[in-house]
Amino acid sequence: MNDAHRSGCPINLTLEVLGDKWSLLIIRDIIFGNKRHFRELLTQSLEGIASNILADRLKKLLEEGVLTKSDDPSHKQKALYSLTEKGIELLPVLAQMAMWGRKYMPVSEELAIRAQLLEEGGPRLWAEFMDELRERHLGIPLKKRPAGRPSVGARLQAAYEEVVARQKTAAAG
Amino acid sequence: MNDAHRSGCPINLTLEVLGDKWSLLIIRDIIFGNKRHFRELLTQSLEGIASNILADRLKKLLEEGVLTKSDDPSHKQKALYSLTEKGIELLPVLAQMAMWGRKYMPVSEELAIRAQLLEEGGPRLWAEFMDELRERHLGIPLKKRPAGRPSVGARLQAAYEEVVARQKTAAAG
DNA sequence: TTAACTAGTTGTATTTTACAACTAGTTGTA
DNA sequence: TACAACTAGTTGTAAAATACAACTAGTTAA
């Protein structure tokens, strides 16, 4: 955490924190996969992060105030990683990157469905999702939960599983 | 350009192209600073990029189809770098990162003013700016230019210079 | 003719990343 | 109570990326 920044440009300062190939993937897994423990992040990482890199990035994200770490009451050794407001507000950045990747890179269908829903839902949906994250990570209760409608997190997850199920059917049949 | 991607996740694929500390800064200088030549990007880089890193990143961005390279008629040796549509559509990503950096990092005032205007203008302003970039980089003429109003690029630049001028006055007076 | 400008390349030291193995302690089960 | 599995990491080493300075080769304008 040296204060010797390369410049005071907002984009540069963001890149100094997040400009590598792993940090935003960790944030992604916490936000969209609800991965909260070291081992979850390590073994369920789609891209196969190394344990020393994961430990280093978690440390840096803690130092930068993007994450916090607390004890998990269920297990003396378990650490629970939570997003801060600063971390939660990375969702629009991730959404915008996901939209760009979906449009211009060779994404796989089941992993692109979340990006599609985030694009269709737009900033309104992002805000709703961020409120859910505030409840989950910061303990801030949701003011209004639209009656009879699953959460954004649940809808994204359901859409993903639906595509996977359809793919299995297509492959088998 | 190896096809061995770590995963088909849109966010991951975006990071595979742009996940380092320099690529998006080069895009930023092209978009907001209208830097089109190697030497401009090298010597006017706020953060001081090294020439071999710049050469390497330009090469990768060309390979990925984010930039194109052409001869500058004014000088046989000059290369002119232009954004593709894929590159132009990185503007929302940069805008979102700039907004996050402005909110959560120790930005300098004169470099944060553009981020502020991009935030206030929202996606409508981004779309207008992207049309200007399409004219400049792709030769696509602007359909409608609001009469008597400077371009978005000019407004961003003017706002920056205004802050710098005010800072000079304050420092001298 | 010459100085300054053009886009890079080359060599070397430092830093970062990747990969595998390992530590130290905790928990659930036989 | 012993033991296997699980917890969050650390350590050692090789490979890759980055930083820094010097340099190449050709072009342009005075």
Largest interface: A-B, 45 and 46 residues
CATH topology of the largest domain in chain A: Arc Repressor Mutant, subunit A
Major sheet description of chain A: 2 strands, antiparallel
The secondary-structure class of chain A comes to mainly alpha
Low-pLDDT ranges of chain A: none
Average pLDDT of chain A works out at 95
Count up the helices of chain A.
8
Please state how the strands of the largest beta sheet of chain A are arranged side by side.
Answer: 1-2
How far apart are the first and last residues' alpha carbons of chain A, in Å? 55 Å
How big is the Rg of chain A? 17 Å
Give the total of beta strands of chain A. Answer: 2
Number of domains of chain A: 2
Estimate the strand proportion of chain A. 5-15%
Named CATH architecture of the largest domain in chain A:
Orthogonal Bundle
Order of helices and strands of chain A: HHHHEEHHHH
Oligomerization: homodimer
Descriptive account of the structure:
The structure is a homodimer of 173-residue chains. By secondary structure, chain A is mainly α. Chain A folds into two domains: 1-84, Winged helix-like DNA-binding domain superfamily/Winged helix DNA-binding domain (Arc Repressor Mutant, subunit A); 90-173, no CATH class. In chain A, 62% of the residues lie in helices and 6% in strands. Chain A has helices spanning 10-18, 23-33, 38-43, 51-63, 85-88, 91-104, 109-138, 152-172, and strands at 67-71, 79-83. A two-stranded antiparallel ribbon of chain A has the order 1-2. In chain A, a hairpin with a 7-residue loop joins strand 1 (67-71) and strand 2 (79-83). In chain A, helix 6 (91-104) runs antiparallel to helix 7 and helix 7 runs antiparallel to helix 8. Chain A starts with 9 loop residues before the first helix and ends with a helix. The model of chain A has no long low-confidence stretch (mean pLDDT 95). At the A-B interface, helix 1, helix 2, helix 6 and helix 7 of A face helix 1, helix 2, helix 6 and helix 7 of B. Chain A binds a DNA duplex (30 and 30 nucleotides) through helix 3 and helix 4.
